């Protein structure tokens, strides 16, 4: 992170550090249940205290995701939502007044099909500050790293409890923050984490000066508070996506829509550390 | 020819390792263990012993005289992988990976399966080696291949029906990978085809190359020379790559992979990855892929559950691009006709997968001269398919 950065995510983490706060990073599947609702939910998440937002691009074969996000992906795909639609949604959210830094969470194949030239040319104009590509390990990411750097976008690396001696290599030359996967497995709420999770996060901290965030399976305010002690950011995904799923019947009825949105806001508010 | 894959698992621009970080060390451990044990003669001997005494290898290379006469052209040989224990070539790889798992100290194995042949082979090897076994199978396939589901259960395996996506082979593969991510510390994933992240495509090829190695020896014994053409069905492509690989340097030997055209390559209902696919990343590697313009993987269709797959092994994509092998589509109907043809001319009921290879040979053999030699990989037997063939023909008189 250089002092003259204009990347919205870097600025947000810098400010959080000055204030001594941990970032709350919600994840949302774009287009679940539809794009208009996604825009409304983004406003609610911001009002609920989100600091950075992960926008999940729906994918037909989400290998790293558990059933909750798989179902959300299927719902969004039925509405023909794809990578470009997700980028356009980020831009619209900005035009609606959102100040949140946006991270695009996408599998690699949709990016490849759009073409790397087009993809990187459009990231900045669509207000994207960061990328998470869960099926792109460091060995395969050289070109994406170079292009991200040139585009001023952070390619957020994931490290897992099984990464051990790979951690150094993964974090070297990384930007934005380092995303620690809390436990073995796919995304989804869980009551327990990998037994060595604290040591694991500590070892990541030793390896990098970047902010360190943790995600996968974090679903309650208690869990957020626990990890806020040792991390600069906490990602909550499936729990929010499940909340959205729960209130879809409310969201679809104009008479109860605002109640549905309010329930999402309240759920996220109580996660805030 | 250049030796592939390279150290990154690349076959030209295909292959590689596109998986969540959680799996990376497991794949590296697998790659290193495989390299270590495959250099160990005792490991090779154990596999060879089981292939011979347990699976019944070598399998015959059978001259299909009546089929040859009926088609009136090239001389046709069948490599009888259907005579393996459990009825298909899948056992070759399951034994290899099973022994590797044991050497690595793993006590639990998982597998994905489409037609059920790989699931049965894995359940068999797990029983033989005393390992716990879970098989992921698309719910749609558990219906199409109910008999194989029962066989796996008899063998002591747990069959987990997969209800995500199209509920077929690709979803079974996704679910097996997801399960592996969660249980990577004590579980070995016995992957059934020459697909997936490195080292699987290379390892599966090497465990299946016995098909081609034997064929090479046998055809020279029978004919005093190498064949002119090898033909094999391609879903993920393990039997085909096993047959092709030992002949790679022999320029006179042509190679044709036959993929499933379902209801036709000009309909949306096919699994013709090579004919209609484009480059993409799917289930851990870069290869040809059936996908839409946004990079969403499209559903495949084939009467044969084993070919009903939108991807293909990366080495096949490489062989297509360097033009070492050719890939052609065959429809459901053509495969069924070929199945019947082999039944009545040779008294052999082939698997629907293998029937695709026969169908292509039935098309081209009449146009080839009588001194041409064609070897078809008869990858599996058709007992498992009898019910679905009955359903397809609606019990009509054959």
From TrEMBL, chain A:
UniProt keywords, alphabetically: Amino-acid biosynthesis, Aromatic amino acid biosynthesis, Lyase, Tryptophan biosynthesis
Catalytic activity, as annotated: (1S,2R)-1-C-(indol-3-yl)glycerol 3-phosphate + L-serine = D-glyceraldehyde 3-phosphate + L-tryptophan + H2O
Entry coiled-coil feature ranges: none
Pfam families xrefs: Trp_syntA
Subunit structure: Tetramer of two alpha and two beta chains.
Function: The alpha subunit is responsible for the aldol cleavage of indoleglycerol phosphate to indole and glyceraldehyde 3-phosphate.
The protein's name: Tryptophan synthase alpha chain
Gene encoding the protein: trpA
TrEMBL record, chain B:
GN (gene name): trpB
Annotated InterPro entries: Trp_synth_b_CS, Trp_synth_beta, Trp_synth_beta/beta-like, TrpB-like_PALP, TrpB-like_PALP_sf
EC number: 4.2.1.20
Keywords (A to Z) from UniProt: Amino-acid biosynthesis, Aromatic amino acid biosynthesis, Lyase, Pyridoxal phosphate, Tryptophan biosynthesis
Catalytic activity: (1S,2R)-1-C-(indol-3-yl)glycerol 3-phosphate + L-serine = D-glyceraldehyde 3-phosphate + L-tryptophan + H2O
Role according to the record: The beta subunit is responsible for the synthesis of L-tryptophan from indole and L-serine.
Organism: Paenibacillus typhae
Pathway: Amino-acid biosynthesis; L-tryptophan biosynthesis; L-tryptophan from chorismate: step 5/5
Recorded GO CC terms: cytoplasm
Subunit structure: Tetramer of two alpha and two beta chains.
Required cofactor names: pyridoxal 5'-phosphate
Catalytic class of the enzyme: lyase
Record's protein name: Tryptophan synthase beta chain
Domain of life where this protein originates: Bacteria
Alphabetized CDD domains for the sequence: Trp-synth_B
MF terms in GO: tryptophan synthase activity
Residues in Tryptophan synthase beta chain-like PALP domain copies: 56-378
Keyword Lyase tagged: yes
Modified residues (N6-(pyridoxal phosphate)lysine): 90
Similarity remark: Belongs to the TrpB family.
């Amino acid at each position: 992170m250089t002092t003259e950065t204009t990347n919205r995510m870097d600025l947000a983490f810098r400010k959080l550090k000055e204030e001594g706060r941990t970032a709350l990073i919600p994840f949302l599947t774009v287009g679940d249940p539809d794009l208009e609702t996604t825009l409304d939910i983004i406003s609610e998440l911001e009002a609920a205290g989100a600091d950075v937002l992960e926008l999940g691009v729906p994918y037909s074969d989400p290998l790293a995701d558990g059933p909750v996000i798989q179902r959300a992906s299927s719902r969004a795909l039925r509405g023909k939502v794809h990578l470009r639609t997700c980028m356009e949604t980020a831009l619209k959210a900005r035009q609606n007044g959102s100040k949140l830094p946006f991270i695009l969470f996408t599998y690699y194949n949709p990016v490849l099909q759009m073409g790397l030239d087009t993809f990187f040319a459009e990231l900045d104009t669509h207000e994207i500050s960061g990328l998470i590509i869960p099926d792109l390990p460091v060995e395969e990411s050289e070109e994406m790293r170079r292009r991200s750097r040139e585009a001023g976008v952070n390619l957020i690396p994931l490290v897992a409890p099984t990464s051990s001696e790979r951690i150094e290599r993964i974090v070297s030359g990384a930007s934005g923050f380092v995303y620690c996967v809390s436990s073995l497995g796919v995304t989804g709420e869980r009551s327990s984490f990998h037994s060595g999770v604290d040591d694991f996060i500590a070892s990541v901290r030793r390896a990098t000066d970047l902010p360190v965030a943790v995600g996968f399976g974090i679903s309650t305010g208690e869990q957020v508070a626990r990890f806020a002690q040792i991390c600069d950011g906490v990602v909550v995904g499936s729990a929010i996506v499940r909340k959205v799923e729960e209130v879809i019947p409310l969201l679809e009825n104009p008479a109860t829509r605002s109640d549905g949105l309010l329930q999402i806001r309240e759920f996220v508010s109580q996660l805030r550390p | 020819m250049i030796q592939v894959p390279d150290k990154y698992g690349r076959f030209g621009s295909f292959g590689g390792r596109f998986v969540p970080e959680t799996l990376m060390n497991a794949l590296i451990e697998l790659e290193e263990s495989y390299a270590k044990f495959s250099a160990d003669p005792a490991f090779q001997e154990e596999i060879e012993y089981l292939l011979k005494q347990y699976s019944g290898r070598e399998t015959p290379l059978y001259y299909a005289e009546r089929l040859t006469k009926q088609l009136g052209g090239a001389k046709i040989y069948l490599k009888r992988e259907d005579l393996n224990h459990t009825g298909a070539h899948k056992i070759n790889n399951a034994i290899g990976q099973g022994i590797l798992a044991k050497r690595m100290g793993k006590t639990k194995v998982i597998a994905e399966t489409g037609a059920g042949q790989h699931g049965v082979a894995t359940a068999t090897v797990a029983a033989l080696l005393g390992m716990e076994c879970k098989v992921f199978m698309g719910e749609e396939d558990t219906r199409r291949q109910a008999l194989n589901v029962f066989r796996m259960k008899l063998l002591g395996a747990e069959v987990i029906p997969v209800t995500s996506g199209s509920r077929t082979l690709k979803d079974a593969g996704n679910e097996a990978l997801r399960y592996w991510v969660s249980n990577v510390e004590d579980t070995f994933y016995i992957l059934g085809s020459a697909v997936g992240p490195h080292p699987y495509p290379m390892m599966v090829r090497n465990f299946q190359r016995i098909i081609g190695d034997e064929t090479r020896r046998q055809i020279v014994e029978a004919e005093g020379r190498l064949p002119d053409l090898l033909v094999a069905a391609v879903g993920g492509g393990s039997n085909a790559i096993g047959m092709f690989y030992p002949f790679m340097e022999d320029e006179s030997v042509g190679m044709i992979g036959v993929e499933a055209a379902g209801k036709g390559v000009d309909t949306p209902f096919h699994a013709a990855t090579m004919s209609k696919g484009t480059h993409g990343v799917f289930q851990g590697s870069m290869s040809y892929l059936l996908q839409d313009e946004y990079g969403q993987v499209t559903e495949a269709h084939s009467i044969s559950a084993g070919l009903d797959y939108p991807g293909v092994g990366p080495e096949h994509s490489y062989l297509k691009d360097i033009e070492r092998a050719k890939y052609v589509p065959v429809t459901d109907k053509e495969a069924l006709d070929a199945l019947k043809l082999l039944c009545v001319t040779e008294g052999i009921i082939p698997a629907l997968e293998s029937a695709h290879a026969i169908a292509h040979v039935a098309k081209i053999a009449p146009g080839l001269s009588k001194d041409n030699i064609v070897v078809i990989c008869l990858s599996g037997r058709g007992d498992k398919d009898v019910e679905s063939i009955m359903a397809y023909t609606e019990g009509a008189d054959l």
